[in-house]
Every structure is written in structure tokens, then in C-alpha cells.
Design brief:
Belongs to the dUTPase family. The chain is about 5% helix and about 35% strand. With about 150 residues, it is mainly beta. The strands form three sheets. It has a four-stranded antiparallel sheet. The protein has a four-stranded antiparallel sheet with strand order 2-10-5-7.
């Protein structure tokens, strides 16, 4: 299924020096987001910075949201993750997409202009109506919390 997504290009390097956000493979779930920086950015160990993506989006459909997620290779190999864990973009937001990058490693990392630093995933939203109850109908899990099934 393919849905139209309104995108405003905020950086003139898109379409000229950089390709538009795109899926890396036919089965990729996320569109790559680039660091629309004017100059290289050195993130020291433990440092974070708000990095422009160079685009704004408008989902327009209240049944959709977008998530800004880290790129697994950057996180595993270099310690570069999102400072806020995950960015949630509501359907009515129309401002620029900013990426909170955090260097959780012990080594400095240089982000170059145009580097693919995050990904954007569009997801359906299910809205709920709260129903206050005194007890729940029993489930197999019940109140079993963190690690309740063990490791092995």
C-alpha cells in the first residue's frame, strides 16, 4: 500500500546534491532522513544536538502518525542514537522535522552534511475511548511484568 505524503523541501540541496527521502530497499519500512547541516558537526562523547532534516511533512490524516527512529547501524557501530528515543509526528504538524542526535559512545563522531542519520516511519493510529473498570477479565499473563518469562 502506498499513501501520498505532503513534503516541503526546506533545503535546496534536495534534488540537486542529495536525493529526496527514500526507502533504501523495496521492503524498507522507513524513509531515510538526512542531516541538513551547513558544516560538519562533531558530537563529542555524551553530547547531543538538534539537527535539521531539511524537510517538513504534513500527514493530514488523523488516522496516521509518523515516527522518527534511529538507524540501527549508527547506534550499534558508532553509538549515535536519538536523544529522545523516538520522535512522534502528529498528523496536523507542519513544521520542520528536527532530529535529536545523541552520541552515547565514548568517542567523538562527525556528522557530515547529507548523512543519513534517522528514518521516518508512517503508522496507523487507533484512537481509544477510556472505559473505567474495577477489575480486568483475567489474561494468561495477568500482572507479570519485566522478565516474567525468563531468559531461557
Amino acid at each position: 500500500m502506498s499513501l501520498p505524503l505532503q513534503v516541503k523541501l526546506l533545503d535546496p540541496r534536495f534534488g540537486d546534491r542529495w536525493p529526496l527521502p527514500a526507502y533504501a530497499t523495496e521492503s524498507s519500512a522507513g524513509l531515510d532522513l538526512r542531516a541538513a547541516l551547513e558544516a560538519p558537526l562533531t558530537l563529542g562523547a555524551g553530547q547531543s544536538s538538534l539537527v535539521p532534516s531539511g524537510i517538513a511533512i504534513h500527514l493530514a490524516d488523523p488516522n496516521l502518525c509518523a515516527l522518527v527512529l534511529p538507524r540501527s547501524g549508527l547506534g550499534h557501530r558508532h553509538g549515535i542514537v536519538l536523544g529522545n528515543g523516538t520522535g512522534l509526528i502528529d498528523a496536523d504538524y507542519q513544521g520542520p522535522l528536527l532530529i535529536s542526535l545523541w552520541n552515547r559512545s565514548a568517542e567523538a563522531f562527525v556528522v557530515q552534511p547529507g548523512d543519513r542519520v534517522a528514518q521516518l516511519v508512517v503508522l496507523p493510529i487507533a484512537r481509544v475511548q477510556l472505559k473505567i473498570v474495577d477489575t480486568f477479565i483475567a489474561s494468561a499473563r495477568g500482572e507479570g511484568g519485566f522478565g516474567h518469562t525468563g531468559v531461557r
